[in-house]
C-alpha cells in the first residue's frame, strides 16, 4: 500500500487492522503472521485516499471526461454530444475540433484538455500504433511483408556530404555553415565552434530524428515542435567549459583523437549522436571487448576465387566514407588492437598491415572513444595503457549536476509526445537519483535509468514501485536496494 499511496508502512498496517475491526472485511493470517484480506464488501463511499489516487468510481458506462482538470459538467456534456465517447477519440482530436463547443472552452483550454486526455488513453493502444508505424517502414514492396535489413558495411562506399559552406557558396567561417553551441550554459550566448555542417542530411549513417521516415528504435527523441531534444550538456569539471562546445571544437580540428570518460548512462553517446545529427555527419558506434582483434576493426582477408583479397571492416570503411567512428569501452581491447590504431592517432593515416595498405581517411572522418572511469563501480573497465592514453584529448562527462536541468531534459524526452510523468513527480525522482549518485553503497540511478523508469510509469507502474524496480535491476551483487528505500520514502 505504501508504494501506491501517501502512507507509511505503519499507517498502512493500522488502516488494515481498522478495516478488520470495523467489519469491512475479514483477515486470514498465515502461520508466519502475514495477513490476507478476504470477504470484502464495499460499505459507504470510497475513502478519500482511494479517490485521490485512482479517481472517482464510475457508476455508468459512459466515459466521464470530468476527471480532466479543465472539464466542467457543461464541457463534459458538450464533448459527449459531439460524439467523443472515449479518451482515445478525444486525444486524437485537434484543438479546432473542440474549441468553442462551449463558451468557456477556449483554444488554450482545449489544448490543455487534449494533452491531459492523452494521459488517460491506455498505453497499450499507443504502443500498438507506434509498433504498426515502425512495421510499415520495414515493408518489402515486392512481397508486401516486413523483412529484416542486412547491410554489408564493406559495400557501403558512398561518402558523407560536402561542407555546407561549399555547396552554398559561403565563406568557410560563416556561422550558418557550422555547429553553434546554443544549449546548456551557452543558451543565452551561443558559441560558434568551427565544426562544419555537411550538406547531406539523408546520408545513411547520419543519426535520425524520431520523425524521420527511416527512423529506427535508436532514433533521437523529438519535442512538441518536432525538433530533436538536445542533451543536457554538463560542464567539464576541470576545463569548466560546456562539453558540447569542447568536443565540437576538437572535431573541427580534423582527425584529432578524442576520449570521453563518464559513468554509465551519463549521455556520452547521446551527445556524440546529437553533434553528428546537427552537422549531418555519419555516426558509426562500435562496441569492443577483450576478444576484439585488428581484423575486427579493419576487416579480414577473404578468398575471392584463386586469390586472397581484403574485406573492409567497420572502422576502415567508416574512415574511407568520412564517418565519425565512436569506439565504446576502448580500454578492454587487447593491446594489439589498440596499438594497431596508434599511427592513425598520431599521424592521421591508417596502416593496415594485413591488407598491405596505407589509408589516408576522408577529410570529414573523425575518431572518438568512450569509456567508464576505472573506479570500483566499474571494476571491469581497465585503465588505458599510458602510451595510448597520451594520444587523446580527454574530457569527463559526469552526471548532470543541476536537478532542475536534469528535470528539464527528462521532461522533454519522456513527455514530448504524450504526457507520462507530471513535473513535480519527475523532480522527486531526480532528487532521489542524485542521492543514489552520492552514496557508493547504493545502486546508482543514471539519466538513462530514469528514462527507463519513466517508461515503466507509462506502462502503468506507480512511481515509487518503478523506482524500486529499476534500483533492483541495476544493483551490483554487493549492493542491496533495500538500503535506499528509507530515503526513497522521503521523496515518494
Question: Based on CA inertia axes, which overall geometry fits?
Answer: globular
Low-pLDDT residue intervals, each spanning 5 or more residues: none
Overall pLDDT = 87
Structural class of the helix and strand makeup? alpha/beta
Q: Give the tally of β-strands.
A: 15
Estimated share of beta-strand residues:
5-15%
Largest sheet report: 5 strands, parallel
Radius of gyration: 28 Å
Number of helices: 20
Strand order of the largest sheet: 8-11-14-7-15
N-to-C CA distance: 13 Å
Fraction of helical residues: 25-40%
GO molecular function, one term: ATP binding
Protein name: AAA family ATPase
InterPro entries: ATPase_dyneun-rel_AAA, P-loop_NTPase
Pfam family, one: AAA_5
Key traits:
20 helices; 5-stranded parallel beta sheet; 492 residues; two-stranded antiparallel ribbon; alpha/beta; 36% helix
Task: Explain what the structure shows.
InterPro entries: ATPase_dyneun-rel_AAA, P-loop_NTPase. GO terms for molecular function: ATP binding; ATP hydrolysis activity. Residues 260-392 form the ATPase dynein-related AAA domain. This is AAA family ATPase. The chain has 20 helices and 15 strands. The chain is of the alpha/beta class. A 5-stranded parallel beta sheet has the order 8-11-14-7-15, with helices on both faces. Helix 16 (403-414) packs across helix 17 and helix 16 (403-414) crosses helix 18 (447-458). It is globular, with a radius of gyration of 28 Å.
Amino acid at each position: 500500500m505504501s508504494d501506491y499511496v501517501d502512507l507509511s508502512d505503519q499507517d498502512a498496517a493500522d488502516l488494515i487492522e481498522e478495516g478488520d475491526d470495523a467489519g469491512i472485511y475479514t483477515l486470514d493470517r498465515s502461520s508466519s503472521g502475514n495477513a490476507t484480506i478476504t470477504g470484502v464488501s464495499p460499505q459507504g463511499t470510497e475513502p478519500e485516499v482511494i479517490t485521490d489516487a485512482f479517481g472517482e468510481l464510475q457508476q455508468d458506462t459512459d466515459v466521464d471526461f470530468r476527471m480532466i482538470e479543465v472539464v466542467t459538467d457543461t464541457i463534459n456534456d458538450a464533448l459527449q454530444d459531439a460524439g467523443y465517447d472515449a479518451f482515445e477519440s478525444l486525444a486524437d482530436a485537434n484543438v479546432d475540433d473542440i474549441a468553442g463547443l462551449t463558451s468557456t472552452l477556449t483554444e488554450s483550454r482545449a489544448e490543455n484538455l487534449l494533452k491531459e486526455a492523452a494521459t488517460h488513453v491506455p498505453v497499450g493502444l499507443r504502443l500498438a500504433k507506434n509498433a504498426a508505424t515502425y512495421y510499415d517502414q520495414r515493408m518489402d514492396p515486392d512481397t508486401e511483408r516486413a523483412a529484416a535489413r542486412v547491410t554489408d558495411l564493406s559495400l557501403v562506399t558512398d561518402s558523407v556530404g560536402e561542407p555546407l559552406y561549399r555547396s552554398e557558396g559561403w565563406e568557410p567561417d560563416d556561422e550558418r555553415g557550422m555547429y553553434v553551441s546554443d544549449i546548456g550554459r551557452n543558451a543565452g550566448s551561443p558559441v560558434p565552434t568551427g565544426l562544419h555542417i555537411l550538406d547531406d542530411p539523408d546520408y545513411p549513417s547520419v543519426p535520425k530524428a524520431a520523425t524521420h521516415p527511416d527512423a529506427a528504435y535508436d532514433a533521437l527523441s523529438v519535442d512538441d515542435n518536432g525538433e530533436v531534444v538536445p542533451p543536457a550538456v554538463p560542464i567539464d569539471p576541470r576545463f569548466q567549459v560546456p562539453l558540447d562546445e569542447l568536443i565540437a571544437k576538437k572535431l573541427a580540428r580534423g582527425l584529432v583523437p578524442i576520449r570521453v570518460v563518464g559513468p554509465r548512462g551519463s549521455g556520452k553517446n547521446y551527445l556524440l549522436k546529437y553533434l553528428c545529427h546537427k552537422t549531418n555527419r555519419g555516426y558509426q558506434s562500435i562496441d569492443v571487448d577483450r576478444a576484439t582483434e585488428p581484423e575486427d576493426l579493419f576487416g579480414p582477408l577473404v578468398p575471392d576465387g584463386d586469390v586472397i583479397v581484403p574485406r573492409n571492416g567497420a572502422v576502415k570503411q567508416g574512415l574511407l566514407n568520412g564517418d565519425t567512428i565512436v569506439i565504446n569501452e576502448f580500454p578492454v581491447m587487447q593491446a594489439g588492437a589498440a596499438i594497431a590504431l596508434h599511427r592513425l592517432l598520431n599521424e592521421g593515416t591508417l596502416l593496415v598491415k594485413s591488407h598491405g595498405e596505407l589509408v589516408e581517411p576522408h577529410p570529414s572522418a573523425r575518431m572518438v572513444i568512450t569509456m567508464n572511469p576505472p573506479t570500483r563501480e566499474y571494476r571491469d573497465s581497465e585503465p588505458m595503457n599510458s602510451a595510448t592514453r597520451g594520444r587523446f584529448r580527454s574530457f569527463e562527462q559526469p552526471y548532470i549536476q543541476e536537478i532542475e536541468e536534469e528535470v528539464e531534459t527528462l521532461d522533454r524526452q519522456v513527455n514530448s509526445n504524450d504526457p507520462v510523468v507530471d513535473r513535480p513527480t519527475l523532480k522527486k525522482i531526480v532528487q532521489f537519483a542524485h542521492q543514489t549518485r552520492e552514496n557508493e553503497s547504493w545502486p546508482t540511478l543514471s539519466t538513462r535509468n530514469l528514462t527507463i523508469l519513466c517508461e515503466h510509469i507509462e506502462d502503468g507502474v506507480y512511481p515509487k514501485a518503478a523506482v524500486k524496480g529499476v534500483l533492483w535491476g541495476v544493483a551490483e551483487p554487493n549492493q542491496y536496494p533495500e538500503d535506499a528505500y528509507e530515503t526513497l520514502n522521503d521523496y515518494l
